[in-house]
Amino acid sequence: MHNPIDIAARATPRPVARRLRGLSDRAIAWIFVAPTIFLLLAINIFPLIWTIRLSFTNYAANRPNREVEWVGLRNYSRILTDADTWANMQSTAHFLIWTITFQVVIGFTLAWLINRKFKGNDLLTTLIVLPMMLSPAVVGNFWTFLYQPQIGLVNYAVEAVAGIPASSFSMLGPGGWARWAIVIVDTWMWTPFVMLICLAGLRSIPDYIYEAAEVDRASKWRQFWTITLPMALPFLMLAVLFRGIENFKMFDMVTLLTGGGPGNETLLTSIDLKREAFEKWRTGYASAYAIILFVTVFGLASIYVKALNKVKER
Amino acid sequence: MTAFFSGLLRLRRGPWEMLATILIALGVFMLMQPFFLWAFTWSFLVTLVGTVMFIITSHFPE
User: Is the predicted ipTM greater than 0.95, yes or no?
Assistant: First the structure.
């Protein structure tokens, strides 16, 4: 009689209870899911369809009263024949390839080293993940100071190690170092994220597999290649997927560090897209640009998820 | 190779997904490579065809 379910059932107003009793489980499930689906349609799907529509027009958001012309594929053709956009794609590719390579190698190595029992393990893990917890705005600002040719610690460290005068070069200025400067900062900030995912993968490997390998007299090197790496691979691939998508749309940190400069050396596609949309106010052109980037990321993510599923099935 | 082409003819998922994957990878490479502007120009079309093909062929029977 005092069962909580009975109490709740008695507390339900009678007309509501009668109406719900007449519904199937499937209908009740739809009632619960409907708000989420509605929000998804309103926030994701509708803007996507609207952006596709705008990409075929010359719409400018700062001139809403101007007559909108249907321009067909002109925006796409302009973007895909523009040498500057091509150069920006190459900057983005440089940023993507190197950040992911460094983060995977360093992140996995750190996870492998930390996945042993030693004193201060927890404290060390906390210290390593600190950069990941900072805001990209904060990271962008303080690395700008670290890279200062006059007062920056990085230049002094280079002088101490390589003997190159600290004030003779600028990591964020002309000279070809800016592309590497943003790679270093992103690697510093996001390697802990990759490390955490790899650590979860390494900790999920049961000890008895290693014990069986020890019994079979397998060397540590062989254990790493035949047990550790294959079993941690799905986690590693997941980390690469997350970082790949995030870095493809990298904006805040690079804007604060270099603003796309010097010249257009670090002008990533997302920064270029923002300039086209909200500085030059070419909304139709920017929409086409966004659709090109969306299809690229969507296509890459599709094949990547397929590869991930195959690895998990093994 | 024969099995691949026979799978394509019989509309099987494996070979068609493989073809779509190759197209997407080729399209992304064309988009970001630093060698030929014409490859950059055609990259979006290749990626789009591959992506649409991938979505459709993932519903094909095994």
Answer: no
